[in-house]
Each structure stands twice: as structure tokens, then as C-alpha cells.
């Protein structure tokens, strides 16, 4: 597999905020950019996980407990980061949740909660961060969308809708703030071996194998693989990339969903 760690200095002197930074993709991104020189604020509701990660990284890594669906809390998070580190260069809006439910059956409070965490929070973070990035002469925003925002998954009404909205909101950010030197891009993961996903997958016998069967790469991603793409988008290596929504899904969204005729013909020939 490709190397997904680095000990370079690509982010030396940079300051980053990572929401949902205590575990999964967020934690992998925190480790990646901190390992390449960034000062990082880990923003999450998970106190224990965040404190453990901050202690692991040591200097230039701090934790702030924040509910990203609370606009005032997000604004205070950004102000605290700027006070602590002197500015802000990178915002990774990674926190997200999902819920299962068809439109007629989905409780309103669940719809509103998913919208609040997956979409409103991205707006809150950008609204608070952009003025500080302007003061630095630019910056980079990365948003975690999803393959489910590029096409829909059965039963995940609110999740699909919010992740599609994140993709188009990212485009809006990109064109509105390119003249400020601020780039905005989205990563669109397919299935990833994060704790929150695997807890659900492992509870249903055979689901992981079935899911892997429809991914052309025939496996789930590791969080580090998503973080590597997000880190590229946050870095000066992507200095002319803005408004992009990049699938990191093992080929999932490249597939029409129709049967693999090669496999069917091979099976028939061997029968």
C-alpha cells in the first residue's frame, strides 16, 4: 500500500483546526499535518480521545471541546485557536453524523440534527475562519463530504442530502474567496475503517464482505488514506486546486452499479 505518513515540513509555521479530530479520519489528519510541522487544535466532543491524542503529539497540539452545531461555540473555538497560535491557515471541517430513515419515517429532530452537524457546522466554521485567513493573506479549507453526496445510498436521506450540500457549498466558497487567496475543496470518502462505521458494519453478519464486493478496490479505506488526500488539498502542493470534490472511494462512484459481467461469464464458463 502507498505510504500515508510523512515527517517533512510541508506545514511548518501553519495553524490548523480539525473538527471531529479525536478519532478516525480527523485523528489521522491531525497526526499527518502535525507531523509535517503544523500547530493543531483538535476540536471534538470526545474529551478522553482528544486529550489522549493531544498528549501523544505533545507541543503545538491542543484540544478544545466543542459542539460544532453551536454557532457561538464554533466562533469561540476559532478565536481560541487564533489567540493560542497567532492565526489560522487551515480549517478541516470533518465532523459528521448519519442516521437511517426514509423520508416519511424520519423524525424531524433527527433530520435537523444531521443538517446541523453536517452542513450548518461547516458554514459556522468557515464564517468564523475566513476573516482570520484573510488577515494571513489566504488559507485552505477542506470539507469532508462523502461518496454519498455524489450519488445516493438507500435509506440515508438526511446524510445524502447534507453531503451533497457540502459539495456545492464548497464550490461556492471556492469561487467567492479565490481572490482572498483562500482555497476550498472537499474529500468524498467511500467506506472507511473508522470506529463509528465499523461498529455498525460488524453488527450485521456478512455486510462488510458484501460492501467490499461492490467497491472495485475490494476493500475499505484506512483513515490515513483519506487524510493523505485532505492533507494534499490543505497544502501548498495544491495551490491551484480549489472548488474540487475528490472521490477517495476505491472506484465506488466510478461504477454504474451494474453487474460485473466478467465475473458472471467466468463463473458460467467454469460451471
| Name of the CATH superfamily | NAD(P)-binding Rossmann-like Domain
User: Which sheet architecture does the biggest sheet show?
Assistant: 7 strands, parallel
Low-confidence stretches: none
Shape field: globular
Number of extended strands: 7
Q: In terms of structural class, how would the helical and strand content be classed?
A: alpha/beta
CATH architecture: 3-Layer(aba) Sandwich
Straight-line N-to-C gap: 34 Å
What is the helical fraction, as a range of percent?
40-55%
Q: How many helices in DSSP terms?
A: 9
**H and E string:** EHEHEHEHEHEHHHEH
Number of structural units classed as domains: 1
CATH class descriptor name: Alpha Beta
Whole-angstrom Rg: 19 Å
Query: Residue-averaged pLDDT, rounded?
Result: 95
Notable features of this structure?
271 residues; alpha/beta; Rossmann fold; 7-stranded parallel β-sheet; 9 helices; 14% strand
Description:
It is built from nine helices and seven strands. The chain has a single domain, classed as Rossmann fold (3-Layer(aba) Sandwich). The chain has a seven-stranded parallel sheet with strand order 3-2-1-4-5-6-7, with helices on both faces. The chain is 46% helix and 14% strand. Helix 1 (24-35) crosses helix 8, helix 3 packs parallel to helix 4 (108-135) and helix 4 packs parallel to helix 5.
